[in-house]
């Protein structure tokens, strides 16, 4: 059976795995990401690839990285959290390992993993939205990743939803990411910490509103805390409104929701589905996309990148 290596390059860790044609990870390697040293990041990718390739007969390597990837799937043009600027990652890895290599946006890789082996393996058109620190997006249309003219399409978290709204990490204002992400959830939770209804949340944070985290809000929401439920629902509402806009453009069969905030389950998805129905043009007179929870978890990027090395 054909084996390839998938490498998922994140801001804090680099995870790699040997993946077979069925999307099963047979061996793993992991390192911390030297995120402030561009050359060291490439060296670490090469290190984990060689570690796995020395133990397994692999055919190719797929590298998934945050940021803008060129249309040739060879260079990382811009990755704000990795200090990469126009780095020829494909050629550097291929030269050092002797293996054919492709580079892909990390959200695209995760979307491909869910499309091929996860929550959307039964459809041809899907959108992955990862709700974590930011909002990542990947689009599969007619069974192919949609990359756009220059390879940098589907930055769905940076669709503007509020003119001159909250400042986004990208430097612009009003992006979806500023309203439907874990970062937005924490901002709203900290602002609500002075309310009487925030007593349990503040207690969990040791009395310091600035120590409130997204997982704390999710934990309390799942335990029935009313304020936490409202906060999660607001993220879901923003997400659902955006999905209505994405439906108008792409007409997907399914949205797949992943990322840390998706751990809130129905507390996030039900408000999202309600807002999606409300904001879908022609709702009730057209097929509506399903909303599903991602099934591959943190392995989606590794599995997707490895499979894309075969494509």
Automatic annotation (TrEMBL):
Pfam family, one: ROK
Recorded GO CC terms: cytoplasm
InterPro entries membership: ATPase_NBD, ROK, ROK_cs, ROK_glcA
KW Calcium (keyword) present: no
Enzyme nomenclature, EC number: 2.7.1.2
Keyword flag Kinase: yes
Highest taxon, organism lineage: Bacteria
GO biological process: glycolytic process
GO molecular function: ATP binding; glucokinase activity
Keywords, sorted A to Z: ATP-binding, Kinase, Nucleotide-binding, Transferase
Family the UniProt entry places it in: Belongs to the ROK (NagC/XylR) family.
NCBIfam families named among the record's database cross-references: ROK_glcA_fam
Name assigned to this protein: Glucokinase
Protein's organism: Jiangella rhizosphaerae
């Amino acid at each position: 059976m054909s084996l390839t290596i998938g490498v998922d390059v994140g801001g804090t860790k680099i995870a790699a795995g040997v993946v077979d044609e069925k999307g099963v990870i047979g061996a793993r390697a992991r390192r911390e990401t030297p995120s402030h040293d561009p050359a060291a990041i490439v060296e670490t990718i090469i290190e984990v690839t060689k570690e796995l390739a020395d133990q397994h007969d692999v055919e190719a390597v797929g590298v998934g990285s945050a940021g803008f990837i060129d249309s040739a799937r060879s260079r990382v043009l811009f990755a704000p959290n990795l200090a990469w600027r126009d780095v020829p990652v494909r050629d550097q890895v291929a030269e050092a390992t002797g293996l054919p290599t492709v580079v892909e946006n990390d959200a695209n890789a995760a979307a491909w993993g869910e499309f091929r082996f996860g929550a959307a393996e039964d459809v041809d058109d899907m959108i992955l939205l990862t709700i974590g620190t930011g909002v990542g997006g990947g689009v599969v249309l007619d069974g192919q990743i949609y990359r756009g003219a220059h390879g940098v399409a589907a930055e769905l978290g940076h669709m503007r939803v509020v003119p001159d709204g909250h400042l986004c990490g990208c430097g612009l204002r009003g992006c979806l990411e500023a309203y439907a992400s874990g970062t937005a959830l924490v901002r709203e939770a900290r602002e609500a910490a002075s309310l009487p209804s925030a007593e349990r949340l503040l207690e969990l944070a040791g009395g310091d509103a600035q120590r409130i985290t997204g997982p704390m809000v999710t934990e309390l929401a799942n335990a029935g805390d009313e304020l936490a439920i409202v906060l999660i629902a607001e993220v879901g509402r923003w997400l659902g409104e955006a999905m209505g806009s994405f439906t108008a453009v792409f007409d997907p069969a399914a949205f797949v929701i992943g990322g840390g905030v998706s751990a809130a389950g129905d507390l996030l998805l039900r408000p999202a589905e309600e807002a999606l129905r409300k904001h879908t043009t022609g709702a009730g007179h057209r097929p509506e996309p399903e909303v599903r929870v991602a099934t591959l978890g943190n392995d989606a990027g590794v599995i997707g990148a490895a499979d894309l090395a075969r494509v």
